[in-house]
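re: ur question from the group chat, yeah i did fold both. here u go
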Amino acid sequence: MTQDMPSRGSAFRRTIALGAAGVLGLGAVAAGLVGTVGAGPAAADSGPRTDLTLTVLHTNDDESQLVGVDGDTDGDGTIEPDETRAYGGAARYTTLWQQLRRQAETGRPAQGGKRAVVSISGGDNYLAGPEFSASIEHGVPFYDALALSRLGLDASAIGNHEFDFGPDVFADFVASVRSTGGGSFPFVSANLDVSGEPALAKYADQGVIRATTVVRERGERIGVIGLTTPELPTISSPRNVRVRTELARIANDEASALTRQGVDKIILVSHLQDIDNELALVPQLRGVDVVLGAGGGEILADSGDRLIPGDRAERGYPLWATDADGRRVPVATTTGNYKYVGQLVLRFDRAGRLLGADDEQSRPVRVAGAGTDAVVKDAWTRTHVEAPVESHLASLRETVVADSEVPLNGVRSDVRSKETNLGDLVADALVWAGARKAAEYGVPAPVVGIQNGGGLRNDAVIPAGPVTALDTYDVAPFANFVAVVPEVPRDTLRRLLERGVAAAPSAAGAFIQVSGLAFTYDVSRKAQVVNESTGEILTPGERVRDVVLDDGTVLVRDGQVVDGAPVPVATNDFSARGGDAYPLKGLDFTPVGTTYQGALRGYLEEGLSGKVRAADYPVGGEGRITATN
């Protein structure tokens, strides 16, 4: 997840390791896709006879959106739990999923033969935010796990967000699924080694976390292989979980092993952050019949498919690509958030060869509470999941986490152009959280905090008086995690500050709120210029004149860097990855298992003992950032 937009979508396309023999970038295989994406095998009425019609019901990236969404997705994302939300939600989703399963199991196959159904999640089954905080507070079983188990899944891939709070919380999620008894299902990922995390290793020993699984339906054996993005260590907090990157080789080895066991229908469910990464992987695959992608949140739909108002299809459903043996492979995904059930209906002959897809039945099915396709809410899920989560969201409005002696300024134009006391507070919270987690994650305690102004989103002044838990989500709404960059060279830190003030006096999301240092900059001097898409610095910038740590250590004097040791810095993982063209890309960093919202709330409650004092956070800030000329 990154800032200023949801983690899902085309703005965050990534190139990942895909090579069969090593690491191969997306761009290197793009040429191999020419002519491979388009219509699938002909829905032939002649030729090999259909022996099995397989319906694959799939979901992915539901990310704790348990209580539904509005019909227009262009809103500001403010959480307003409301029974009248017209689309999505776990309770409606359950009803629709079960209806589609019954139809697939009992309906007459259009092409004859048997029918079977497989139900799969692509992962990212929960996400940091006010809804998931209900599960954290409630404990095992998590509400998200209860909702997912109600679907009767056959398997779930393991996404990056499963590790956002560290491996132990993921283990609690697995325990939550297991506690549901008949609703339990395995978690599959062939390129993760969880043996270094005891809480997860026990589930691997039990076969709950595994590379593959075999689903038995109507006398058929359907193999499911899982893959997780190789970017996992830099976009989440897997700690001692090892991630293998040679995805094609791993998938092919697993497919070969399943084939030797007599499994002749194989589904790959891969959480690679972008459907184009799945499409780039297919030309290297052998023996995989179907690919379900996850992590990108693309909307795939054909003309005539009913979408939630405000949603727009990017491409058709499903996509098709050609594998290493020249076979056409369907590739599908959904946009997540409990908004659509993916329904991929495939035809196989008696030898297990894929003949094609049912074009009429294969589609994303929207989850509607209004209109002719509306479904009622599943009573059990409504009672045991949605209702308590809605109650928790209401309680966040009423939960006071601190009392402030001073108004806290989060006005958009201010936090993006100058120091504010709310900016100081959030930057201090990053340092505080990084220091508390340093030993657990094996990083040095940070001495500097960096918060980009674009990540502060309440666009208001919080009046003096009570600060609520919901206020902390309004200020820090993104699922960005606190990250520690252990060694930031002093010149890199200077360039980082230059980037932060490059647009001044105009407002910009890259403006930097700081902790642990004070600096001055001269607006009349040359500003840094960067290539926004690559982060390359085109003009270095000469604005930053003096930088001094809180302990008196001088890092920059009169525009010149003072030689010395690098500085450990706490920031959010969006910035640590080079977001806003910050010059941190390429430096090692470690997410430390808490969101920046969690850091802010924890700092208010524990670090400041529930009291924001005017002496510490005066109106206008305490002079950490000084503009001259």
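okk and heres the other one u asked abt
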Amino acid sequence: MLGQLRRIVQDVAQEPVLQNALAGLVSSVKQALTTECCSVYLADYDQQHFMLMATDGLNPEAIGNIAIGFSEGLIGWVGQREEPINLAKAHLHPRFKVTPEVSEDRFSAFLGCPIIHHRKVLGVLTIQQAAERVFSEDEESFLVTLAAQLASVLANAEMRQAVGQSSPSQSQSSQMKGLPGAPGIAIGEAFVLEPANDFNAISLKRADDPDKELAHFYRAVKITKAEFNRLAERMSGHMPPDALAIFDVYHQLLDAASLGREIEQQIAEGWCAKSALKRVVEKFARQFDDMDDAYLRERGTDIRDLGQRVLNNLLDTEQRKIKLPQKVVLVADNVTATMLAEVPREQLVAIVSLKGSVNSHAAIMARALGIPAVMGVSELPLLQWQGQRLIVDGYQGQILLSPIEAICHEYQRLITEDAALNARYQAEIALESCSSCGAPFSLMVNSGLAIELETTDPKYTGGVGLYRTEFPFIMRSRFPTEQEQIELYRKVLESYPDKPVIMRTLDVGGDKALPYFSLAEENPFLGWRGIRLTLDHPEIFLVQIRAMLKANLALDNLHILLPMISDLAEVDESVRLIKQASFEVSDELAIELPKPKIGVMIEVPSIMYQLPELARKVDFCSVGTNDLTQYLLAVDRNNPRVASLYDAMHPAVLRALYQLSQQAQGLQFPVSVCGELAGEPGGVLLLAAMGYNSFSMNSSNLAKIKWLLRRVEMSELALLLPEILACQSAKHVRLQIQRFLEQKQLLSQLRA
């Protein structure tokens, strides 16, 4: 039964045409459950009805012509209840709707199951039978399990089809929805920098030139066979001859008499090389999966391994031939710092990440670079994006595929308006950072990707409120040496003379992995990350601190920030190691070192309740609203399934921030905010109302935030705060902020 479920879901996922996928679905379910009818209805929320989209058992002429209202019939009842309905005599039920066109009067038994994705009913899957009986628990369980697995596949089926078939000649653009990761609008060409070398990421596509596809395939096979020869030679001294025979089997499978012949046949029928390989490999692998003999079932794994190796070489061959477009929209499963580094900044116009959320690391990097980004778009095959013309709207979280010229002109107008707004903000960048009533603010920048990418002149900032030292670690294939770190940190410190530069010690783990240091964990955000990792590896921590201290010589503007602190003992141990490093450097250079200020990131809720003790141990604290929100709300900010639950304007988060500010002021303990909330117009207004006056943000937001703060009075914010703290939802918080900005006639001048 499990094998049947898996096969049905795979077949639906692989079929690029939605109608064909649904037709195959109902036939497969009917056969698997040995029933007389299977049908699928999809929801149309604009028309408020379910449309019959495929059936094997009802009148085929009703497909696409019969609609059942959301509150009508048994189909509507299944959708309303959002649970299975199992009836022996469906035609006698009061909710049964007679629809002569579908010819279902001969069926008595009815089992309907909702297809639900992210709390939204996408459709209803039904089976029917003439005999009056209640479908068994096994049959119901099968249908429920199948509907759950199909939900995400069907949610993305139409978008998959749009990506695969869009062309500039279409009269309408295809639109996709994701999460707004970074503000802005851009028009460019999709470029998949690192395709996911996985058959699940390959969509079936046809090709116009079979000879060219065959040449691609033969070249990949040749490279793969050479790899097998090298592997066999390398392992010959470590494995018995019978074990090495697997490499001979692989060779034979690739020959024309075996898989090779099948793949050539598929290419001759018009499939591209990748699609032909996928179809053949998955066909044979499934055959082995269904065998009773355990040894033969394992051969399915061999087939997949072989296919994966050929696919890797096929993709590598194709990737090398792709030229970088002039305006790159970087599309990836998960955008990383190394990907960004491979695309020249002047060509990179936008980012699309199929996974991740608004506060994932990819989104943070996009905002730091001032590039629009859309996150958590879909589980679409990556390679289908390659070469597509895209409009990326980072404000709305929308992507338009192959837009017509009229739409491009409209979005180009919005891009021009954006540039005019930014020019208005930049016109006041040199003015004092204060409110309209003269209350001073310190506006600093978050940095770390590369100091040369910062767009704001250092003299217009209060310094660096957060320098992320992890990026130099991530960008290398090994840990950077002490001298390499000295040179890097010195460059940053010298760029902001006489202004504080707050350097956060290595903060990897969670969604920031080092390519040379394995950090794979079940729950990475609750695991071995930040200070926990570096205290377990003092050799890494000490080298970094030594490099910071040496870089700070004759400059004396270094501040050290400790991330992921959850316990006072971690503070004590970190301070001890900093003192040790200081003593070592002082002894080595025979000079007295300037003592940098030490601070702690407030991002783990536990440390918020130890503020008085913390204030006696360190010099300052900085609130990381991104992780603090994540931990307070128990939401993985990288998980698009729960992305809607992550919101820094959640009343609980705002009340926690207010209590923290009040307590810090009472202790006279310096506190700043370096999370993303400080760079949002609404967020910075609320933080200022709470009493925070030091903010660090991406440099691309600094001019806008300064422009906004110069137009508000503290007395106005003091009146706004009680209304905000009384709100019961993030939605109501935003409505209150919007109302405030409208009253100040500022809303139309802030696109965010």
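fwiw on the second one: The CA atoms of residues 220 and 310 lie 6 Å apart. DSSP finds 25 helices and 22 strands in the chain. idk if thats what u expected
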